[in-house]
């Protein structure tokens, strides 16, 4: 089971009321390479992966939910007190007519989240390489959002999230190494 | 051992390209491409600093600055 | 009805200290998932875990429970559902 802790993993600050940035950030909320996809992908794969990498999938999957909450916080703060006119100017009137200011799992172009974004092949090598690729794609998405954003406080949090993808990728690369090693790590003579 | 974390390439430029060409394009190749299986006892950031770096280990830290409009990364 | 009162600077400052320690714990945890035999890293993990517990105990005395489902104590009246939530502060 999981426990909720009443804190963000990293302090999220937003300097300006700028709903346009919310439109881009939602990519990492309900997009193909976003945090929801990441969390669900890893937590689902963990049931059928060899024991030596279950813990890693479990823990990175859990951390991804903390990242999902950071993205949600950014979107919430960027839109909280914006007027419908401001939302319209920012290009998110189509979101507003369906969801008002509530969050929803769709990408920056408005496509709803789908399980087709993620995969679980049951082949440990295929799954771990999918995970490495997912981390690099998430890293790239953060780069492109940072390039579009001029909010220095928001960019600070986005740089944190980009760096986390790098560390996750590193750990999955190590997991790939563990999976091809001859010996089970528990048997040491 | 010194790896560079940005790579460059020069796309073909046609005289009929409508936008002002970006002569040199770049892309990041961050540290996880090179570290291999992380060795034990690597130097660490201070606990306070680690949070703001997004990692405990300088060996995994990758700076990212906004690209300028020409599509270049800072080295 | 007025909105709930704002949190004092100490709330942010102590929360940040917890975030710092807990972040190092997450980093070491993921590292240990692929390096289960690193004795020094386990020692550091355990000592930071101890540090985190201390910080949280102190924080919760002033600002209420950080966790639900029996991981934190509550004063009267029930404090868990008190605002602000993390995305509101
Ligand atoms: Fe990740």
TrEMBL record, chain A:
Binding-site list for Mn(2+): 35, 64, 67, 135, 168
Biological source species: Aquibacillus salsiterrae
Keyword tRNA-binding appears in the UniProt entry: no
Which parts of the sequence bind Ca(2+)?
Answer: 59
Q: How is the cofactor bound?
A: Binds 1 Ca(2+) ion per subunit.
Q: Keywords assigned by UniProt?
A: Calcium, Manganese, Metal-binding
> Which cofactors are required for activity?
Ca(2+); Mn(2+)
Q: Which Gene3D superfamilies match?
A: 1.20.1260.10
InterPro entries cross-referenced by the UniProt entry = Ferritin-like (IPR012347), Ferritin-like_SF (IPR009078), Mn_catalase (IPR007760), Mn_catalase_dom (IPR039377)
Instruction: Return the protein name.
Output: Manganese catalase family protein
- Describe the family membership recorded for this protein in Swiss-Prot or TrEMBL: Belongs to the manganese catalase family.
The family database entries (Pfam families) matched by this protein are listed as:
Mn_catalase (PF05067)
Which terms in the Gene Ontology molecular function aspect does this entry carry? metal ion binding
Automatic annotation (TrEMBL), chain B:
Source organism (scientific name): Aquibacillus salsiterrae
Q: Name one Pfam family in it.
A: CotJA
Instruction: Report what the protein is called.
Output: Spore coat associated protein CotJA
Q: Provide the taxonomic classification.
A: Bacteria, Bacillati, Bacillota, Bacilli, Bacillales
TrEMBL record, chain C:
Q: Which domain of life is it from?
A: Bacteria
What name does the UniProt record give this protein?
A: Spore coat protein CotJB
Q: Which UniProt keywords apply?
A: Capsid protein, Virion
Please report the stretch or stretches of sequence annotated as the Protein CotJB domain: 13-88
Can you name the source organism?
Aquibacillus salsiterrae
